[in-house]
């Protein structure tokens, strides 16, 4: 088996940028290697030296986005007294920076990103935030919070002309915390 050459950072960036321009507007199964190559200003043969197909580019695109999110969100967890509202307040600006990409990948049925993104969110909730609840309650809260997060993203995307994601998160928190705060075993925020 021939070893593939190392891809240069500039070529890699051009391929991923070209892919993103196409992926923003069409489903993955409608994107061709020829279109990506043309947008990246490389020959198709050069594309195949680095990637097997369009789906391999999608995987790298998803991985890069998750790596960027981890890199920017990790310092949030250095705060010693981190509650869920504080976590949300500090991470929303980071998520907004990548919102178009996150939204597109979360809503693409062929993307692995949705599962990976929510696994990351659940990991952050369970390992980094002290919720002060039982194991069963924590698992339910992880699932509920990630579902609410997806709903908030989708709602904001469809109504961004009349509200901000921060406003939507505030409303969601009010709904959540007025209900959750009445549970006797939940740590008060």
Strand percent estimate: under 5%
* Structural class determined from secondary elements: mainly alpha
> Helical element count?
9
- Strand tally: 0
| Helix proportion range | 55-70%
What number of structural domains do the residues give? 2
Question: Looking at the structure, what is the overall shape?
Answer: elongated
- Computed Rg: 20 Å
Topology as H/E string?
HHHHHHHHH
Which whole number gives the mean pLDDT? 82
The profile of the biggest β sheet is: none
End-to-end separation in angstroms reads 57 Å
Query: What are the segments in which pLDDT stays under 50 over at least 5 consecutive residues?
Result: none
Please, could you describe this protein's structure?
By secondary structure, this protein is an all-alpha fold. It folds into 2 domains: 9-52, Homeodomain-like (Arc Repressor Mutant, subunit A, Orthogonal Bundle); 58-180. Helices cover 68% and strands 0% of the residues. It contains 9 helices and no strands. Helix 7 crosses helix 8 and helix 8 runs antiparallel to helix 9 (165-180). The longest helix is centred in the last third of the chain and has 25 residues, at 135-159. The radius of gyration is 20 Å and the shape is elongated. The chain starts with 8 loop residues before the first helix and ends in a 9-residue tail after the last helix. The relative contact order is 0.09.
Summary of the model, kept short:
This protein is mainly alpha-helical and 189 residues long. It contains 9 helices and no strands.
């Amino acid at each position: 088996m021939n070893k593939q050459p190392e891809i240069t950072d500039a070529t890699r960036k051009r391929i991923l940028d070209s892919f993103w321009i196409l992926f923003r507007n069409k489903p993955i199964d409608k994107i061709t290697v020829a279109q990506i190559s043309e947008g990246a200003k490389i020959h198709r043969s050069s594309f195949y030296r680095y990637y097997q197909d369009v789906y391999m580019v999608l995987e790298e695109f998803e991985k890069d986005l998750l790596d960027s999110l981890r890199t920017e969100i990790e310092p949030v967890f250095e705060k010693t007294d981190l509650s869920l509202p504080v976590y949300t307040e500090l991470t929303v600006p980071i998520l907004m920076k990548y919102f178009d990409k996150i939204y597109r990948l979360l809503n693409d049925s062929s993307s692995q990103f949705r599962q990976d993104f929510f696994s990351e969110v659940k990991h952050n909730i369970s390992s980094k935030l002290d919720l002060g609840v039982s194991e069963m309650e924590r698992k339910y809260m992880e699932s509920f919070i990630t579902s609410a997060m997806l709903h908030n993203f989708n709602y904001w995307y469809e109504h961004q002309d009349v509200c901000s994601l921060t406003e939507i998160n505030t409303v969601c928190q009010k709904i959540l915390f007025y209900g959750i705060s009445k549970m006797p075993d939940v740590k008060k925020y």
